[in-house]
Amino acid sequence: MLSRLALSAVRLGRPSPLAVSSTSSLARRCFASSNEAPPKKSEPSEATSSSNKLSFEEEAARQIRNAELIRDTRGKNEEFNKGPVTWVSLGLLAVAGAGLVMYFQSERANHRANLEAKRNRGLGVPKIGGPFTLVDTNGKRWTEEDLKGRWTLIYFGFTFCPDVCPDELDKMTEIVNTIDNTPDIGPVVTPLFISVDPMRDNAKIMGEYLAANAFHPRIVGLTGTTEEVHQVARAYRVYFSAGMPENPADDYLVDHTIIQYFMNPEGKFATYYGQTTTAQDAAKRLIQSIREYRADAPERERASLMAELDAAKAAASNPTAQGATPPPRQ
Fold it and tell me: Where is the Thioredoxin domain (predicted)?
């Protein structure tokens, strides 16, 4: 009952010492007005009565202080929850922060993986391609410079080949058609058919062979002299050997490497595929090479610009190399 009185006093306002004394007197009167007489006890001494009275008042004051503390704490919590910053908002902020940290860590890992992949692409790349000069079916001269600015798919064979070369040219046709019909790429590939049989495959025969078969119309037939064919074969690491018969009029076969090279617009090796690769798999490989090359375009432009700046700095620091007169010695 005493606790209820103290709490009631707190709800009405902060009690004064007078309220505490009144509360004590009220409690004693309630006890004295009871119907049943209290059991008789030995009369306490004056010191004991004073001590009990003091303890009663201190307990009442302690109860009041606890009630005030509870009231103040509840008030502060209510004010905090009503403000712009609440426990719910703090929890949401912590969850969002953890999500951002995980996202940035994932992006950093992906960035490092991409850089590592780009570095690895430059390792172990075979040196394919080089200077050459050949002639097409129209008599036009082609060199390695004509391959720059376009994607080229190159196959080495000969027109008198009974089965392998026609099959590979059919595969080349299917691959080029697949790339042509890819929406984000289109007709960007120039297919080349280079003869390794210069004794029989002149420009006229190459033209008739390509026209007589249902190969892709963009296939360019190239041939040349024996020395020119050997030069381009060395540049592209292609082996060929003609089994010459005793009578040159007799038919003969040419043993050669069965491989097709895919060169990028810089005239550099991009990828390749062999005889056992299907047209679908080869087309996917070539399309991936084109997309990766396009994705790396900003980096190549930046590297080219840095190379030009380095060359300009080197030329500026060495005026003698530019033909300028060196300054006189002091």
Answer: 123-292
Region class of 267: left (phi > 0), else alpha (psi between -120 and 50), else beta: left
pTM attached to this predicted model: 0.57
Q: Do 276 and 148 fall within a single domain?
A: yes
Contact 100, 94 (CB under 8 A): no
Query: Which residue segment(s) compose the domain that 16 sits in?
Result: 1-29+52-79
User: Apex CA 215: angle with CA 229 and CA 164, to 5°?
Assistant: 60
User: Are residues 277 and 210 part of one domain?
Assistant: yes
End-to-end CA distance of the chain: 111
Structure tokens at 204: 């006229």
Closest CA to 157 of 118, 120, 210: 210
Is residue 257 a contact partner of residue 126, using CB atoms and an 8 Å limit?
A: no
Q: Per the domain annotation, does 109 fall within a domain? A: no
Conformational region of residue 124, where left means phi above 0, alpha means psi within -120 to 50, and beta covers everything else: left
Per-residue pLDDT tens over the stretch 277-306: 999 999 999 999 999 999 988 877 777 767
161 is in an annotated binding site: yes
156 and 20 in a common domain:
no
Q: HEC profile for the chain?
A: CHHHHHHHHHHHCCCCHHHHHHHHHHHHHHHHCCCCCCCCCCCCCHHHHHHHHHHHHHHHHHHHHHHHHHHHHHHHHHHHHHCCCCHHHHHHHHHHHHHHHHHHHHHHHHHHHHHHHHHHHCCCCCCCCCCCEEEECCCCEEEHHHHCCCEEEEEEECCCCCCHHHHHHHHHHHHHHHHHCCCCCCCCEEEEEEECCCCCCCHHHHHHHHHHCCCCCCCEEEECCHHHHHHHHHHCCCCEEECCCCCCCCCCCEEECCEEEEECCCCCEEEEEECCCCHHHHHHHHHHHHHHHHHCHHHHHHHHHHHHHHHHHHHHHCHHHHCCCCCCCC
* Number of domains within the chain: 2
